[in-house]
Amino acid sequence: xxxxxxxxxxxxxxxxxxxxxxxxxxxxxxxxxxxxxxxxxxxxxxxxxxxxxxxxxxxxxxxxxxxxxxxxxxxxxxxxxxxxxxxxxxxxxxxxxxxxxxxxxxxxxxxxxxxxxxxxxxxxxxxxxxxxxxxxxxxxxxxxxxxxxxxxxxxxxxxxxxxxxxxxxxxxxxxxxxxxxxxxxxxxxxxxxxxxxxxxxxxxxxxxxxxxxxxxxxxxxxxxxxxxxxxxxxxxxxxxxxxxxxxxxxxxxxxxxxxxxxxxxxxxxxxxxxxxxxxxxxxxxxxxxxxxxxxxxxxxxxxxxxxxxxxxxxxxxxxxxxxxxxxxxxxxxxxxxxxxxxxxxxxxxxxxxxxxxxxxxxxxxxxxxxxxxxxxxxxxxxxxxxxxxxxxxxxxxxxxxxxxxxxxxxxxxxxxxxxxxxxxxxxxxxxxxxxxxxxxxxxxxxxxxxxxxxxxxxxxxxxxxxxxxxxxxxxxxxxxxxxxxxx
Length: 487
Description:
Blueprint: H1 12-29, E1 82-84, E2 90-92, E3 106-110, H2 119-133, E4 138-142, E5 151-154, E6 160-163, H3 176-200, E7 204-208, H4 215-224, E8 228-232, H5 239-242, H6 247-256, E9 259-262, H7 265-274, E10 282-284, H8 291-297, E11 308-313, H9 322-335, E12 341-344, H10 350-359, E13 366-370, H11 374-383, E14 384-389, H12 398-405, E15 410-413, H13 418-422, E16 429-431, H14 436-447, H15 450-467, H16 470-485
Helix pairs in contact: 1-3, 2-16, 3-4, 9-14, 12-15
């Protein structure tokens, strides 16, 4: 492309880097905005080699911020927009009609986004679409990608998506090459996000599925005085116990967030057990059926033949418990030899599961369908007599929401938000977690009772339609954004 100043042909990246540099330097030199501070000092990439490997002269990168960093007051239980529910959990109340129109653009930050990349990716994409529908514009930053330089694309909802890989703080303690790579990516992200926040007039930054890599985003929000919200969605909470080294970055994120949300009441309780100091700012905004799935399936479900006895749909990961299900299936098969189990999904446990199927001579009754397109997921649920959720831990699982919306009864482990979907056995069957024997008994009993399956399916569908509307969820987030952006 041509240089705007000289007209000479230069690589696109060189022109964009120079323009970005000018803009960020201008932003850093600008007067404080709305009580905030000027942004950051830009470090030119060649200077990376001169940075001390373990920080800037013994300091962290935050020493590069020019001015004292303001402390943004947190939302104390989002008092102006919360109501007490009969189970005692805080809940953000829906805004009045049209409130979304008053909320400025929000930066949504997530490790994974859209496509068929798992529950977090699907849920966050659905939230972006629902926010757009209620009048809240958003920009998305996806960080679990390989590219070292910013890449942009347009999403399914018309949203702008930035893809830029970043490494966690542990990379700063590796070898010299790893440390230089960490600083290069970190500085690129600082510059890119500062530019985006200024250009798009971002009013809040919303983190989804809290991971240590978000620590750099936290610094940008803190330096620019933009309110930070973080949403916990499930297994990341357990990282506090499983890997104490991750506790520092995650606790800093919680400390600097003006509000912390969880996608279920059960997940909020787990969070407060591990991080009691989050109690003052922790609220519940329940997960919802993904918007595209809701649009397709909220009308009367189809009447496809129920030719799958039991369906597992999800990533084949230890936290999802497919090994627990397979252990239970040995007992189910002994009592109901004709029953068939289908696994939809893939993951690191697949090879081990296939080996166990062969070892236990279950080849004819257990099938691995692999990862399927999102547009085909509903078809599998409609074909299933029972959907099963043997998880060791959950936030508020899409499997349960998607199955119940099409009238398929669920047998699930009583972890996280699963009881909130199934209504404590009112609209599904709950079993103790990590208990193959209890899971097998529940599956055998429900397979033998067609009338009960039909009743549970009807009740579960009615409950999901009432409680897990994606637009209602979006309005609650819009109310939260409006609250924090006014502070």
